[in-house]
Amino acid sequence: MAREEPDVEALNEAISSALVFNDEVKDGGGVQITCFSEVVNDVALHFQILRLPKQIYVWMGCDSAKLGHIYAAAPTRPKDMISVTSILGGASDNTGSGIARRLVLKTGLNIILACNIPKNSPMLEAEAEKMLVQKLIQLGYTRAKAEGSSS
Amino acid sequence: MDFLGLTKCAQGNKTDVVLCSYDDHFLVIATQIGAMGTILHARKEEGVSIEPTFNVSAVFGKRDEPMLLACARQLIQHISISGSSRSLVISLGLKDHSAETLKGVVSAVIENRLW
Question: Is the predicted pLDDT of residue A12 greater than 70, yes or no?
Fold first, then answer.
């Protein structure tokens, strides 16, 4: 199937510009994609935030670009209690479930989190979570919650 | 990590498609409902026979929609034929699960594939 030249050019440009890890915000139709990276104690943390109208998908990578374990978390009735479930992986290493839960607690969003942060690094976990929450607030994705957040 | 986002129109519904390539997985999101919808995991299993076998399962959301499984199965087979042994995580948040819609999703993903 022959592809028209302008389409190939646009596609190449989209993919090559998406490889820049520098607060890149792209609008894929109704979806906003933000990527950024930070270095913490010689460890590179990569973040990808994908905003859908009713949900947010977040990927957190630590040094590598592996998908990691996937968790879903959301406020559920009654009283907006936070529920978390593991979708992929997460049997012995459930670092991500704590992060997912606290993300929903602090932002009030419906979240799918893919996280490959290793399990025995609480400092790294805390730093990554802090950066992510700050970014979500900065991008204006968070919902105002009635009660103050408690860590 | 590589990604691509696009919007297609399938059966009159605006469909947002996002494709991401990670070290060990491909992620495909096709949504018409503003959320990720049903999440499926498809992987190739290395067996003793020459023909590869694929394991496709719904891990979140509707578990009784065979067309979604068929869609994931087609894509993992395409990935395998292209020479990659990575697994696929696909999330489908669609308003209808007709064959035409899913064929549209499969062709949009294959046209813009990252493998």
Answer: no
Contact list in A for residue B34 (CB cut-off 8 A) is: 30, 52-55
Residue found under tokens 């860590």: A151
Q: Tell me the residue length of chain A.
A: 151
pTM of the model: 0.83
Burial of B104 (0-12, 13-18, 19+ CB in 10 A): buried
CB B105 within 8 Å of CB B71: yes
The residue among B20, B24, B57 with the most chain A CBs within 10 A of its CB, best to mutate, is B20
Bridge partner residues of A34 (DSSP): A25, A49
- Which residues from B are below 8 Å from A27, CB to CB? 5
Predicted complex ipTM: 0.90
Put simply, the answer to whether B3 touches A52 (Cβ < 8 Å) is no
CA–CA distance, A24 with A22 (Å, rounded to integer) = 5
Q: Are A114 and A69 in contact (CB under 8 A)?
A: yes
